[in-house]
# Entry
Amino acid sequence: MKWLILEIIIFTVLGVILGLFKNYYIIIIFIIGIVLFVFLKKLNYKYILIAIFGSSILISTLVSEITNIRLLPIPELEMKGKIYPIYKDTVDGEYYRFNSNNPNDLKQVNELKNNEIFDERNEDGSWRISKGTTRIDFFTTEAGVLTQEEMMEKVETWNFSELDKKGYWLYPSDFKNLEVTMIFKMLDAEKSDQSVSIVSRSILHDNKGEDEIKYFPNAYCGGSSYHNNIALDGKLQMKKEQYHADYVIDDPNKEIDLGNLYNKKIGFKSIVYNFGTNTKVKLESYVDIKNEGKGPYIKVHEKIDDGKWTLDLRESKMDECGALTKGAVISWGSPKVILKTNNLDFDLYDFEIREIDPP
# Structure
Protein backbone atom coordinates (compact mmCIF):
# COMPACT_ATOMS: atom_id res chain seq x y z
CA MET A 1 0.00 0.00 0.00
CA LYS A 2 2.89 2.34 0.83
CA TRP A 3 4.35 1.77 -2.64
CA LEU A 4 0.99 2.61 -4.24
CA ILE A 5 0.73 5.89 -2.31
CA LEU A 6 4.29 6.78 -3.29
CA GLU A 7 3.61 5.97 -6.94
CA ILE A 8 0.44 8.12 -6.90
CA ILE A 9 2.40 11.05 -5.45
CA ILE A 10 5.20 10.66 -8.02
CA PHE A 11 2.80 10.41 -10.97
CA THR A 12 0.73 13.39 -9.74
CA VAL A 13 3.76 15.65 -9.21
CA LEU A 14 5.25 14.66 -12.59
CA GLY A 15 1.95 15.38 -14.34
CA VAL A 16 1.60 18.81 -12.68
CA ILE A 17 5.15 19.80 -13.62
CA LEU A 18 4.75 18.71 -17.24
CA GLY A 19 1.46 20.59 -17.58
CA LEU A 20 3.06 23.83 -16.40
CA PHE A 21 5.80 23.58 -19.04
CA LYS A 22 3.10 23.98 -21.74
CA ASN A 23 5.30 22.28 -24.33
CA TYR A 24 2.85 19.90 -25.98
CA TYR A 25 5.46 17.91 -27.89
CA ILE A 26 7.27 17.12 -24.65
CA ILE A 27 3.97 16.24 -22.94
CA ILE A 28 3.04 13.75 -25.67
CA ILE A 29 6.48 12.14 -25.51
CA PHE A 30 6.22 11.76 -21.73
CA ILE A 31 2.69 10.32 -21.91
CA ILE A 32 3.88 7.65 -24.34
CA GLY A 33 6.93 6.99 -22.19
CA ILE A 34 4.95 6.69 -18.93
CA VAL A 35 2.39 4.34 -20.49
CA LEU A 36 5.15 2.08 -21.83
CA PHE A 37 6.96 2.20 -18.48
CA VAL A 38 3.83 1.23 -16.52
CA PHE A 39 3.00 -1.71 -18.77
CA LEU A 40 6.58 -2.97 -19.15
CA LYS A 41 7.11 -2.85 -15.39
CA LYS A 42 3.71 -4.49 -14.91
CA LEU A 43 2.85 -2.17 -12.03
CA ASN A 44 -0.26 -2.85 -9.97
CA TYR A 45 -3.20 -0.55 -10.54
CA LYS A 46 -1.60 0.54 -13.84
CA TYR A 47 -4.81 2.03 -15.25
CA ILE A 48 -5.37 4.06 -12.08
CA LEU A 49 -1.79 5.39 -12.22
CA ILE A 50 -2.12 6.32 -15.89
CA ALA A 51 -5.47 8.05 -15.19
CA ILE A 52 -3.94 10.01 -12.29
CA PHE A 53 -0.97 11.03 -14.44
CA GLY A 54 -3.20 12.14 -17.34
CA SER A 55 -5.61 14.03 -15.07
CA SER A 56 -2.71 15.85 -13.40
CA ILE A 57 -1.37 17.02 -16.76
CA LEU A 58 -4.83 18.13 -17.94
CA ILE A 59 -5.67 20.08 -14.78
CA SER A 60 -2.20 21.63 -14.62
CA THR A 61 -2.34 22.71 -18.27
CA LEU A 62 -5.81 24.27 -17.83
CA VAL A 63 -4.64 26.17 -14.75
CA SER A 64 -1.59 27.37 -16.69
CA GLU A 65 -3.75 28.58 -19.60
CA ILE A 66 -6.17 30.44 -17.33
CA THR A 67 -3.63 32.01 -14.96
CA ASN A 68 -0.61 32.34 -17.30
CA ILE A 69 1.49 30.47 -14.72
CA ARG A 70 4.33 28.74 -16.49
CA LEU A 71 7.59 27.08 -15.54
CA LEU A 72 10.82 27.91 -17.35
CA PRO A 73 10.46 26.71 -20.93
CA ILE A 74 12.23 23.65 -22.21
CA PRO A 75 14.63 24.56 -25.05
CA GLU A 76 13.04 24.53 -28.48
CA LEU A 77 13.15 21.22 -30.32
CA GLU A 78 14.01 23.08 -33.49
CA MET A 79 17.07 25.33 -33.57
CA LYS A 80 16.50 27.97 -36.22
CA GLY A 81 19.21 30.01 -37.89
CA LYS A 82 18.68 33.72 -38.35
CA ILE A 83 16.69 34.81 -41.36
CA TYR A 84 18.70 36.12 -44.35
CA PRO A 85 20.12 39.42 -43.01
CA ILE A 86 20.69 42.80 -44.64
CA TYR A 87 22.60 44.57 -41.84
CA LYS A 88 24.86 43.36 -39.03
CA ASP A 89 23.56 42.71 -35.53
CA THR A 90 24.41 45.09 -32.72
CA VAL A 91 26.62 43.33 -30.19
CA ASP A 92 24.41 42.16 -27.29
CA GLY A 93 21.44 43.88 -28.93
CA GLU A 94 17.85 42.84 -28.26
CA TYR A 95 16.55 39.94 -30.35
CA TYR A 96 13.20 38.24 -30.86
CA ARG A 97 12.38 35.12 -32.88
CA PHE A 98 8.91 33.70 -33.42
CA ASN A 99 8.20 30.57 -31.39
CA SER A 100 6.42 28.41 -33.96
CA ASN A 101 5.52 25.78 -31.36
CA ASN A 102 4.13 28.23 -28.82
CA PRO A 103 3.61 31.71 -30.32
CA ASN A 104 2.11 33.06 -27.09
CA ASP A 105 5.33 32.40 -25.20
CA LEU A 106 4.31 34.69 -22.30
CA LYS A 107 7.85 36.07 -22.29
CA GLN A 108 7.75 38.49 -25.22
CA VAL A 109 4.27 37.77 -26.64
CA ASN A 110 0.93 37.31 -24.91
CA GLU A 111 -2.14 37.41 -27.16
CA LEU A 112 -4.13 34.76 -25.25
CA LYS A 113 -7.08 37.14 -24.78
CA ASN A 114 -7.39 37.76 -28.53
CA ASN A 115 -9.02 34.68 -30.01
CA GLU A 116 -8.44 35.78 -33.60
CA ILE A 117 -4.65 35.68 -33.12
CA PHE A 118 -2.88 32.32 -33.36
CA ASP A 119 -6.29 30.63 -33.24
CA GLU A 120 -5.45 27.86 -35.70
CA ARG A 121 -2.26 26.12 -36.76
CA ASN A 122 -2.13 25.05 -40.39
CA GLU A 123 -0.76 21.77 -41.68
CA ASP A 124 2.34 23.54 -43.04
CA GLY A 125 3.19 24.86 -39.54
CA SER A 126 2.01 28.44 -40.06
CA TRP A 127 -0.49 30.16 -37.77
CA ARG A 128 -3.75 31.68 -38.98
CA ILE A 129 -4.44 35.28 -37.97
CA SER A 130 -8.07 35.90 -38.83
CA LYS A 131 -11.06 38.22 -38.44
CA GLY A 132 -9.32 41.02 -40.30
CA THR A 133 -8.14 43.49 -37.67
CA THR A 134 -4.98 42.54 -35.82
CA ARG A 135 -2.53 44.11 -33.39
CA ILE A 136 0.25 41.83 -32.15
CA ASP A 137 2.81 43.23 -29.68
CA PHE A 138 6.35 41.80 -29.67
CA PHE A 139 8.30 43.00 -26.61
CA THR A 140 12.00 43.17 -25.76
CA THR A 141 13.35 40.57 -23.37
CA GLU A 142 14.09 43.25 -20.77
CA ALA A 143 10.59 44.71 -20.87
CA GLY A 144 8.80 41.36 -20.97
CA VAL A 145 5.07 41.26 -21.64
CA LEU A 146 3.51 44.48 -20.34
CA THR A 147 -0.10 45.62 -20.12
CA GLN A 148 -1.04 49.10 -21.27
CA GLU A 149 -1.48 50.20 -17.65
CA GLU A 150 1.98 48.92 -16.74
CA MET A 151 3.55 50.75 -19.69
CA MET A 152 1.85 54.04 -18.82
CA GLU A 153 3.01 53.78 -15.23
CA LYS A 154 6.61 53.12 -16.32
CA VAL A 155 6.81 56.00 -18.83
CA GLU A 156 8.74 58.88 -17.26
CA THR A 157 7.88 61.48 -19.89
CA TRP A 158 5.54 61.93 -22.87
CA ASN A 159 7.49 64.98 -24.05
CA PHE A 160 9.14 64.39 -27.44
CA SER A 161 12.11 66.73 -26.88
CA GLU A 162 12.91 64.93 -23.62
CA LEU A 163 12.52 61.53 -25.32
CA ASP A 164 14.88 62.67 -28.08
CA LYS A 165 17.56 63.40 -25.46
CA LYS A 166 16.81 60.24 -23.48
CA GLY A 167 16.66 57.94 -26.51
CA TYR A 168 13.98 55.48 -25.38
CA TRP A 169 10.52 55.09 -23.86
CA LEU A 170 11.33 52.63 -21.06
CA TYR A 171 14.83 51.13 -21.19
CA PRO A 172 18.14 51.74 -22.99
CA SER A 173 17.60 48.28 -24.54
CA ASP A 174 14.33 49.34 -26.22
CA PHE A 175 14.01 48.39 -29.91
CA LYS A 176 15.40 51.32 -31.93
CA ASN A 177 17.58 50.55 -34.96
CA LEU A 178 15.80 47.51 -36.28
CA GLU A 179 15.64 44.93 -39.01
CA VAL A 180 12.24 43.23 -38.71
CA THR A 181 11.51 40.27 -40.98
CA MET A 182 8.10 38.71 -41.50
CA ILE A 183 7.44 35.54 -43.52
CA PHE A 184 3.75 35.22 -44.23
CA LYS A 185 0.95 34.67 -46.70
CA MET A 186 -1.79 37.29 -47.25
CA LEU A 187 -5.30 35.91 -47.61
CA ASP A 188 -8.82 37.34 -47.60
CA ALA A 189 -9.13 41.11 -47.49
CA GLU A 190 -11.88 43.69 -47.68
CA LYS A 191 -10.04 45.55 -50.48
CA SER A 192 -7.04 44.80 -52.68
CA ASP A 193 -5.06 47.67 -51.14
CA GLN A 194 -5.35 46.36 -47.56
CA SER A 195 -1.90 46.02 -46.05
CA VAL A 196 0.26 44.51 -43.37
CA SER A 197 2.07 47.15 -41.33
CA ILE A 198 5.13 46.79 -39.12
CA VAL A 199 4.98 49.58 -36.56
CA SER A 200 8.09 50.71 -34.69
CA ARG A 201 9.04 53.22 -31.97
CA SER A 202 5.58 53.65 -30.39
CA ILE A 203 4.41 52.48 -26.98
CA LEU A 204 0.59 52.68 -27.10
CA HIS A 205 -2.18 53.87 -29.39
CA ASP A 206 -5.07 55.71 -27.75
CA ASN A 207 -6.70 58.90 -28.96
CA LYS A 208 -6.56 62.11 -26.99
CA GLY A 209 -9.33 62.15 -24.37
CA GLU A 210 -10.05 58.40 -24.44
CA ASP A 211 -11.23 56.95 -21.16
CA GLU A 212 -8.38 54.39 -21.11
CA ILE A 213 -5.81 57.17 -20.67
CA LYS A 214 -7.79 59.57 -18.47
CA TYR A 215 -5.17 59.34 -15.70
CA PHE A 216 -2.37 59.86 -18.25
CA PRO A 217 -3.84 62.60 -20.50
CA ASN A 218 -0.67 62.98 -22.58
CA ALA A 219 -0.43 59.26 -23.32
CA TYR A 220 -1.87 59.80 -26.81
CA CYS A 221 1.67 60.97 -27.67
CA GLY A 222 2.73 57.35 -27.16
CA GLY A 223 1.43 56.59 -30.66
CA SER A 224 4.33 58.35 -32.40
CA SER A 225 5.68 55.72 -34.79
CA TYR A 226 6.92 54.69 -38.22
CA HIS A 227 4.96 52.24 -40.38
CA ASN A 228 6.43 50.10 -43.17
CA ASN A 229 3.49 48.73 -45.18
CA ILE A 230 3.04 46.08 -47.86
CA ALA A 231 -0.37 45.64 -49.47
CA LEU A 232 -2.19 42.70 -50.99
CA ASP A 233 -1.96 44.35 -54.42
CA GLY A 234 1.86 44.47 -54.16
CA LYS A 235 2.18 48.19 -53.36
CA LEU A 236 4.67 49.54 -50.77
CA GLN A 237 4.01 52.53 -48.53
CA MET A 238 5.51 54.43 -45.57
CA LYS A 239 3.65 56.27 -42.82
CA LYS A 240 4.68 58.50 -39.96
CA GLU A 241 2.27 58.65 -37.05
CA GLN A 242 2.98 61.86 -35.16
CA TYR A 243 0.73 60.86 -32.28
CA HIS A 244 -2.41 58.76 -32.12
CA ALA A 245 -4.05 59.12 -34.49
CA ASP A 246 -2.52 61.80 -36.69
CA TYR A 247 -0.69 60.46 -39.74
CA VAL A 248 1.63 61.79 -42.40
CA ILE A 249 1.09 59.32 -45.24
CA ASP A 250 3.09 58.89 -48.42
CA ASP A 251 1.38 57.62 -51.56
CA PRO A 252 2.24 54.01 -52.46
CA ASN A 253 5.47 53.67 -54.44
CA LYS A 254 4.25 53.67 -58.05
CA GLU A 255 7.64 52.56 -59.39
CA ILE A 256 7.28 49.15 -57.73
CA ASP A 257 4.69 46.61 -58.81
CA LEU A 258 5.05 43.22 -57.13
CA GLY A 259 1.72 42.06 -58.52
CA ASN A 260 -1.10 40.46 -56.60
CA LEU A 261 0.31 38.73 -53.51
CA TYR A 262 -2.79 36.77 -52.56
CA ASN A 263 -1.98 33.31 -51.16
CA LYS A 264 1.76 33.70 -51.84
CA LYS A 265 4.32 32.88 -49.17
CA ILE A 266 6.69 35.85 -49.11
CA GLY A 267 9.28 37.56 -46.96
CA PHE A 268 9.01 41.23 -46.00
CA LYS A 269 11.62 43.31 -44.17
CA SER A 270 10.99 46.56 -42.34
CA ILE A 271 14.22 48.37 -41.50
CA VAL A 272 14.36 51.58 -39.44
CA TYR A 273 17.50 53.28 -38.17
CA ASN A 274 18.88 56.65 -37.05
CA PHE A 275 21.77 58.41 -38.76
CA GLY A 276 23.31 61.88 -38.86
CA THR A 277 23.86 61.90 -35.06
CA ASN A 278 20.22 60.89 -34.53
CA THR A 279 18.89 63.88 -36.49
CA LYS A 280 17.54 61.73 -39.35
CA VAL A 281 15.72 58.41 -39.65
CA LYS A 282 15.76 56.10 -42.64
CA LEU A 283 13.03 53.57 -43.41
CA GLU A 284 13.72 50.74 -45.86
CA SER A 285 11.51 47.92 -47.12
CA TYR A 286 12.81 44.69 -48.69
CA VAL A 287 10.97 41.70 -50.12
CA ASP A 288 11.58 38.14 -51.21
CA ILE A 289 8.66 36.96 -53.32
CA LYS A 290 10.56 34.27 -55.23
CA ASN A 291 12.05 32.07 -52.50
CA GLU A 292 9.38 32.10 -49.76
CA GLY A 293 11.38 34.38 -47.46
CA LYS A 294 14.59 32.35 -47.52
CA GLY A 295 16.33 35.16 -49.40
CA PRO A 296 17.92 36.95 -51.01
CA TYR A 297 15.87 40.08 -50.27
CA ILE A 298 15.59 43.03 -52.66
CA LYS A 299 15.14 46.64 -51.57
CA VAL A 300 11.87 47.94 -52.99
CA HIS A 301 11.20 51.17 -51.10
CA GLU A 302 12.90 53.70 -48.82
CA LYS A 303 12.16 56.98 -47.10
CA ILE A 304 14.23 59.47 -45.11
CA ASP A 305 12.66 61.53 -42.35
CA ASP A 306 14.86 64.60 -42.00
CA GLY A 307 12.25 66.69 -40.23
CA LYS A 308 10.61 67.69 -43.51
CA TRP A 309 8.51 64.63 -44.29
CA THR A 310 5.53 66.69 -45.44
CA LEU A 311 5.72 69.22 -48.23
CA ASP A 312 3.36 71.42 -46.25
CA LEU A 313 4.87 71.67 -42.76
CA ARG A 314 1.57 73.03 -41.48
CA GLU A 315 0.50 69.37 -41.44
CA SER A 316 3.37 68.55 -39.08
CA LYS A 317 2.30 68.57 -35.44
CA MET A 318 5.12 66.94 -33.48
CA ASP A 319 5.39 70.11 -31.37
CA GLU A 320 1.98 69.33 -29.84
CA CYS A 321 3.79 66.68 -27.80
CA GLY A 322 6.72 68.89 -26.88
CA ALA A 323 9.02 68.45 -29.91
CA LEU A 324 11.22 71.46 -30.66
CA THR A 325 10.06 71.52 -34.31
CA LYS A 326 6.81 70.62 -36.02
CA GLY A 327 8.44 67.95 -38.18
CA ALA A 328 10.79 66.46 -35.57
CA VAL A 329 11.98 62.91 -36.21
CA ILE A 330 11.03 59.99 -33.96
CA SER A 331 14.55 59.18 -32.78
CA TRP A 332 13.80 57.13 -29.65
CA GLY A 333 13.32 53.44 -29.08
CA SER A 334 10.32 51.46 -27.87
CA PRO A 335 9.91 48.29 -25.78
CA LYS A 336 7.83 46.70 -28.53
CA VAL A 337 7.20 46.28 -32.24
CA ILE A 338 3.59 46.01 -33.44
CA LEU A 339 2.34 43.83 -36.28
CA LYS A 340 -0.81 45.52 -37.56
CA THR A 341 -3.50 44.73 -40.13
CA ASN A 342 -6.93 46.12 -40.93
CA ASN A 343 -9.49 43.95 -42.73
CA LEU A 344 -6.90 41.42 -43.87
CA ASP A 345 -6.37 37.79 -42.85
CA PHE A 346 -2.97 36.12 -43.15
CA ASP A 347 -0.89 33.09 -42.20
CA LEU A 348 2.29 33.78 -40.22
CA TYR A 349 5.30 31.48 -40.68
CA ASP A 350 8.07 33.42 -39.00
CA PHE A 351 8.87 36.76 -37.42
CA GLU A 352 12.25 38.12 -36.37
CA ILE A 353 13.40 41.39 -34.78
CA ARG A 354 17.11 42.21 -34.74
CA GLU A 355 18.81 45.27 -33.28
CA ILE A 356 21.27 46.38 -35.99
CA ASP A 357 24.28 48.62 -36.42
CA PRO A 358 23.17 51.43 -38.77
CA PRO A 359 25.21 51.50 -41.99
Notes: Confidence is low (pLDDT under 50) at residues 72-79. The chain has five helices and 14 strands. The first strand starts at residue 95 and ends at 97. The radius of gyration is 24 Å.
